[in-house]
Write a structure and sequence with these properties.
415 residues; Hypothetical protein af1432; seven-stranded mixed sheet; Beta Polymerase, domain 2
Length: 415
């Protein structure tokens, strides 16, 4: 029995990155061998075991064969005769197909096994598929895009032959077999990487964006007014907004809202270009449809919807009347969900900064609206009730007092 550390842990070790999960491959062992040493079986499709002390995953070396379309139609074969190279060959990328031999005595890494030149690709910052078997699993398209989101800032790029293969997979209809939950799983992970915009760009480069996120893909080629959007293209603007959101916050809810904030521009009639009047309202059904399709969590959906509908009004927060500011606070449910409101403001700030030449410009609207909310929340409702106000009269008094307090914030802001 030989044990090897494999996959992402080896890659990250070579990149001097933190290792969060360790996966091991066991060569030359049977299920009975593992059970005899106290390992606990957890795999359903193929033999995977948890170490009795560390609870890390150990899988028997295996090969796989595709038996039907999609990413679930695989037949796995685990056997003591399966070699380490055979096991590594079934993996997706060369940088993920390396192994380190482990000494059973002290669990220290010894020899590195790299049959597919993963170290060379790491050095050259290339994301490359291991073998033609890559094309059998459409999830690998999403994984490549996610790795670009993780490593773009380090200068990584997708190998031309890999990008070409991904394009062939799209044309062959492989991505059509992806289930929504898996797409969201990979997107959610990508949103937490350093360059989440690279996820969508990579999908677009291979043609998968049109298949998976047509609402976003249709933004490319749609112009906006150069005065407000020097980058012109609405798709490029969206990627820039997502990039700014990643700079402003690590919160994936904010980043998701940034990614879908302008979908309504894609359905503006061409004869109205480059104006997009009413695109905020037009975005709502598109955001809802996308979120429903991928079963996006409610908290993500809520922030995405209020961002899409109200980001332009947030931009004008320093110019509008106090009553309109209060309307914004009420319509976004800021009094009950202040954290969601703040996330919407950050996504709106990303929208403002996600324009060519606007990246370093301050965004005072966010702080103003947070102050306005804080002051409006100080209205003493119990005192008003004690004064005898009821029902509609009470609601009106609360509103008037909130407006009065917001006006004070506006005056201080102007001063």
């Amino acid at each position: 029995m030989k044990i090897y550390l494999v996959g992402g842990a080896v890659r990250d070790k070579l990149l001097n990155r933190s290792i969060h999960e360790k996966d091991y491959v066991v060569v030359g062992a049977t299920v009975d061998d593992m059970l005899a040493q106290g390992f606990k079986p957890v795999g359903k499709d193929f033999p995977v075991f948890l170490h009795p002390k560390t609870h890390e995953e150990y899988a028997l070396a295996r090969t796989e064969k595709k038996v039907s379309k999609g990413y679930t139609g695989f037949e796995f074969h685990a056997h003591p005769d399966v070699s380490l190279v055979e096991d590594l060959k079934r993996r997706d990328l060369t940088i993920n197909a390396m192994a380190l031999s482990i000494s059973p005595e002290n669990s220290q890494s010894n020899e590195i096994i790299d049959p597919f030149n993963g170290q060379k690709d790491l050095k050259n910052k290339i994301i490359r598929h291991v073998s033609p078997a890559f094309s059998e699993d459409p999830v690998r398209i999403l994984r490549v895009a996610r790795f670009m989101a993780r490593f773009k800032h380090l200068g990584f790029s997708i190998a031309p032959e890999t990008l070409k293969l991904m394009g062939h997979m799209v044309v062959a209809g492989e991505v059509d077999a992806l289930v929504p939950e898996r797409v969201w799983q990979e997107l959610h992970k990508a949103l937490q990487e350093q360059s989440p915009e690279a996820f969508f760009q990579s999908l677009r480069d291979c043609g998968a964006l049109e298949k998976l996120f047509p609402e976003m893909n249709h933004l490319f080629g749609v112009p906006s007014k150069a005065k407000y959007h020097p980058e012109i293209d609405s798709g490029i603007h969206t990627l820039m907004v997502l990039q700014q959101a990643a700079i402003l916050s690590k919160d994936p809810e904010i980043r998701f809202a940034a990614a879908v904030h302008d979908l309504g521009k894609a359905i503006t009639p061409m004869n109205q270009w480059p104006s997009h009047k009413g695109h905020e309202i037009k975005s709502i059904p598109l955001v809802k449809a996308l979120c429903k399709r991928f079963k996006v969590p409610k908290s993500f959906t809520r922030i995405a919807l209020i961002t899409a509908q109200y980001h332009d009004l947030v931009h004008k927060a320093l110019e509008i009347r106090a009553s309109t500011v209060l309307d914004l606070l009420e319509k976004t449910d800021a009094f009950r969900r202040p954290k969601a409101f703040e996330k919407m403001l950050i996504a709106s700030e990303a929208d403002s900064k996600g324009r060519l030449g606007f990246e370093a410009i301050d965004y005072p609207q966010k702080e103003f609206l947070l102050k306005a909310l804080a002051c409006a929340k100080t209205v003493d409702v119990k005192s008003l009730i004690a004064q005898g106000y009821e029902q509609e009269a009470l609601i009106e008094q609360i509103r008037q007092q909130r407006i009065k307090l917001i006006k004070k914030v506006q005056q201080l802001n102007l001063g």
